[in-house]
Please model this.
Amino acid sequence: MKARIIANYLPQFYPIPENDKYWGKGFTEWTNVAKAKPCFHGHYQPRIPADLGFYDLRLPEIREQQADLARDAGVEGFCYWHYWLGNGKQLLQRPFQEVLESGKPNFPFCLSWANHDWTTGTWKRGEKMKEMIARQLYLGDEDYTNHFYSILSAFKDHRYMTIDGKPIFAIYDPYHFSDVSHFIELWRQLAQKNGLSGIYFIAMSNSTTTIHRKDDGSIERVIPDLKSSANVYNDLISLGFDGVNSLGKSRAEMLYEGKYIRIINVLLHKKLPFLPMHKFDYPKVMKYFFSPEDSWENIFPTILPQWDRTPRVGGMEGIYVNSTPGNFQKHLENALKIIANKKEEHRILFLRSWNEWGEGNYVEPDLKYGHGYLEAIRQCIK
Model:
């Protein structure tokens, strides 16, 4: 079935001063990927890239090869993670800026604002877990306006992906951005003023969540609803978003092993990282991945090829076993059924991810499966 696969794309494969300072000269995503060790018999670590090697995203040849692989598999485009911290501070912007300015590769793209603090907790546990590398700031209209104009040329690029004629802009954390509704309205005004038909704002969110945003913008903890995602999605739409990119991972894990058991397991492994690795059987978990409301016209579900964050966090978080290309293809086939009755332009699936190697969450070729995950997409889409 014809569908639009949009792949999240991580640009952290080249050195930047902030990473050099905290992790050592030359640190990139590959540093911990390459030194990861298996935690149990048969555990696939370290994960070694095949066709592209341990690449550096400062090389335009690598970006061209990535686009070729994605295009051949039936991926429509890349959704680059975009880091705007406030006051004009950006991180990891070089690869996308070079793609934009050079016009190459001639492959569609959009942006997702990774609006979160950068802390040492991404790569390190223990005493310095909360050390701040760069704080996410929301500074009001002047900064929001500067942010808009910093990417206006991208919105106007012929490669920029759209929904209903509007450039797509996703926001990673809509919950903790208390000013998000005003931000959306301001950017819509700026879009009209600058010749765009608008912006299609997408909220990224778990389909089942333990947090709820109250009317005053504050956050409260709630009991997750495993039967319906309607309240989650409607709450986000009410903030001004046009659509939601839903992630069914938490929902699936809770239904797989029980709501409260899953919550307790997460807390225990955070407090007691020496506990045995917590494992999820990928095909059994994936049966619960999509909620009924993922079939709504403006909900764009996530597809998840594999998951293993041990290079980043060791054994404290559950990993997925039996996540093979064949099982991923079945997961994708189920996703296509969920979106089958939508308008063709709205048959969108966000692939998480193209190249999150530190999360064991990628479809780029590796030494174990080769092009297997890309071939699974090609079989379903082409």
